[in-house]
Design goal:
Layout: H1 3-14, E1 21-24, E2 32-40, E3 43-51, E4 56-64, H2 73-86, E5 91-94, E6 100-107, H3 115-136
Antiparallel strand pairs: 1-2, 2-3, 3-4, 4-6, 5-6
Length: 140
């Protein structure tokens, strides 16, 4: 397990934060995912905190799996562009499989990784999703 993931896991344990399933992907990047769900408007949306051997930690939410098609493409991408202009810390995008995804990327050089910052950004991402998920519903 990469050092940042290990430190995050220790932080979660020390602060009695539960609800994550940890998955080591055994890939070239040594990726480790902390998976959970956010309950929003009766929907359980998958969220993951992703660590690897790079300097980046990614918080990712799959807002609408495989939801974009020819009939809703314009409206969905227009909404993503508007929301991207409102928040510097998160970006909405259309994934290759036509899913609407939100990412928050947190850089940290060796020795400067902060599990507390990751947890704070995770809370901010959850708030963002709760606040804006309803805006996607007419288009998905």
């Amino acid at each position: 397990m990469v050092k940042q993931a290990k430190r995050y896991q220790e932080f979660l344990e020390k602060n009695n934060v539960q609800g994550f399933a940890v998955q080591e992907l055994n890939d070239e990047a040594e990726s480790v995912m902390f998976r959970s769900n956010i309950l929003v408007r009766g929907q359980e949306l998958p969220i993951a905190v992703i660590f690897d051997k790079s300097i980046f930690t990614i918080i990712r939410v799959n807002l609408a799996p495989k939801a974009v098609n020819d009939s809703n493409m314009f409206e969905a991408t227009n909404l993503m562009m508007r929301l991207n202009g409102r928040n510097k810390a998160v970006k909405y995008y259309l994934a290759a499989d036509a899913s609407i995804v939100l990412d928050c990327v947190i850089p940290a050089f060796a020795g400067q990784f902060s599990p507390k910052l990751v947890q704070a950004m995770l809370q901010m991402v959850c708030g963002e999703v709760i606040e804006h998920y309803g805006e996607f519903i007419p288009y998905i």
